[in-house]
């Protein structure tokens, strides 16, 4: 790593062959978050494995994703999914194709996941928007400015095309993080026992 403390990273489009590494990074990055803990339980390794199956399924099935990756030299250090307007909610066909990646997590996890995605889907804005997430920095690299560099690059792209941004998140730290980039909380809701915040970043035009 160029500078162990606060590396300057390159943020670019994820290449197809990088998807498995990106999925593994997202699973490590999210492993100890409140939602995966509520979904998959107290065992960290089980959570990581379930997350890897889930994110793998999402990137395989939701083909409209245009993910961004942060790299430090040859090392992938951060990833975010990005779904374009009109493509962020799975169609019925996509839901069916997502099922095999979730079935091995067990019936309880699957039911909780359906409740969560249902609640997120109901709150999804009707206006055209870019949907950010899942976003994670590799587990051992959080708090070094990498996520901020990903957000800068993402917001620059939003501003270039004058598009509204939107995301769901699950901790007050994250809300503070996204607020720095112009996102505002538009709804809050407890789902599967976890606080969820829904945040929108208006475009210049809105
Ligand atoms: C949220 C996340 C992407 C931020 O990236 P990052 O590189 O850690 O963040 P930066 O170093 O650029 O900025 C630091 C800010 O991020 C926020 N943050 C959220 N979770 C954090 C964590 N685990 N460690 C450090 N900062 C965190 C804080 O607001 C922090 O600001 P502060 O220094 O005033 O407390 C990253 O911490 C992460 O991967 N978290 C786990 C997965 C997650 O929650 N993703 C977002 C889901 S919507």
Task: Using brief descriptors, characterize the structure shown.
single chain; 206 residues; alpha+beta; Aminopeptidase; 7-stranded mixed beta sheet; 7 helices; globular; binds coenzyme A
Distance between the termini: 40 Å
Strand order of the largest sheet: 1-2-3-4-5-7-6
Rg to the nearest angstrom?
16 Å
Strand runs, count: 7
> In the CATH classification, which architecture applies?
3-Layer(aba) Sandwich
- Ligands in the structure? coenzyme A
Name the CATH superfamily assignment: Gcn5-related N-acetyltransferase (GNAT)
CATH top-level class: Alpha Beta
In percent terms, what proportion of residues is strand?
A: 15-25%
Provide the CATH topology: Aminopeptidase
Query: What pattern of helices and strands is seen along the backbone?
Result: EHHHEEHHEHEHEE
Q: Overall mean pLDDT score?
A: 96
Helix content: 40-55%
Number of domains: 1
User: Stretches where pLDDT falls below 50 for ≥5 residues?
Assistant: none
Sheet/helix structural class: alpha+beta
Main β-sheet: number of strands, strand sense, barrel status? Answer: 7 strands, mixed
Enumerate how many helices there are, as a single number: 7
Outline = globular
What can you see in these coordinates?
With 206 residues, the chain is α+β, with helices and mostly antiparallel strands. The protein has a single domain (10-201), classed as 3-Layer(aba) Sandwich (Aminopeptidase), CATH 3.40.630.30. Helix content is 43%, strand content 23%. The protein has 7 helices and 7 strands, in the order E-H-H-H-E-E-H-H-E-H-E-H-E-E. It has helices at residues 19-30, 34-40, 44-61, 92-102, 107-123, 146-160, 172-179; strands spanning 10-13, 68-72, 75-83, 130-137, 165-169, 184-191, 194-201. A 7-stranded mixed β-sheet has the order 1-2-3-4-5-7-6, sandwiched between helices. A hairpin with a 2-residue loop joins strand 6 and strand 7. Helix 1 (19-30) crosses helix 3 (44-61), helix 2 crosses helix 3 and helix 3 packs antiparallel against helix 4. The longest helix has 18 residues, at 44-61. The chain is globular, with a radius of gyration of 16 Å. The termini are far apart. 30% of the residues are buried. Bound molecules: coenzyme A. The site of coenzyme A has 20 residues, from helix 1, strand 4, helix 6, strand 5 and helix 7.
């Amino acid at each position: 790593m160029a500078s162990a403390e606060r590396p300057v990273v390159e943020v670019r489009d994820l290449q197809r062959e990088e998807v498995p590494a990106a999925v593994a990074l997202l699973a490590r990055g999210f492993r100890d978050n409140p939602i995966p803990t509520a979904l998959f339980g107290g065992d960290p390794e089980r959570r990581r494995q379930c997350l890897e199956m889930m994110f793998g399924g999402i990137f395989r099935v939701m083909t409209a994703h245009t993910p961004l990756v942060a790299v430090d030299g040859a090392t992938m250090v951060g990833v975010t999914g990005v779904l374009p307007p009109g493509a962020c909610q799975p169609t019925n066909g996509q839901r069916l194709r997502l099922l095999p990646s979730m079935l091995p997590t067990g019936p309880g996890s699957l039911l909780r996941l359906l409740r969560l995605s249902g609640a997120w889907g109901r709150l999804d804005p009707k206006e055209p928007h870019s949907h950010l997430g899942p976003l994670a920095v590799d587990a051992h690299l959080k708090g070094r400015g990498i996520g901020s560099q990903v957000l800068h690059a993402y917001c620059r792209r939003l501003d270039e095309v004058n598009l509204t941004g939107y995301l769901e998140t699950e901790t007050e730290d994250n809300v503070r993080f996204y607020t720095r980039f112009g996102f505002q909380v538009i709804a809050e809701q407890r789902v599967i026992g976890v606080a969820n915040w829904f945040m929108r970043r208006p475009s210049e035009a809105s």
